Amino acid sequence: QVQLVESGGGLVQAGGSLRLSCAASGRAFSNYAVGWVRQAPGKEREFVAAISRSGGNTYSADLVKGRFTITRDNAKNTVYLQMNSLKPEDTAVYYCAARQALGPSTRVWVTAGDYGYWGQGTQVTVSS
Length: 128
Description:
Layout: E1 3-7, E2 10-13, E3 18-25, E4 32-39, E5 46-51, E6 58-60, E7 68-73, E8 78-83, E9 92-100, E10 117-118, E11 122-127
Parallel strand pairs: 2-11
Antiparallel strand pairs: 1-3, 3-8, 4-5, 4-9, 5-6, 7-8, 9-10, 9-11
């Protein structure tokens, strides 16, 4: 099993940047693929980005492509989401999610339902 704790959220002006962190506890973090999912009030969850267990493959949703970058440091058991050029519509609670991935090290999963472990979320608010 793995426990996930997000941090790095906050209030930022449009055009600004934030870096979210997802710290994992438990063994063999390198066996877990990770994703970021966000949910704004009154809206459905949106899948934002994913990274393979090795870090060698990533996915970004069209809404954030070119602005958000997902990376990981398996030595630190941490996944990051670098968010640049933030827009008010990026305002949401951002969740880190993980799933065990014992197959190819480059596989990514790109829907929220693929993940079984979730953090508590971190609020990101972008003001106009």
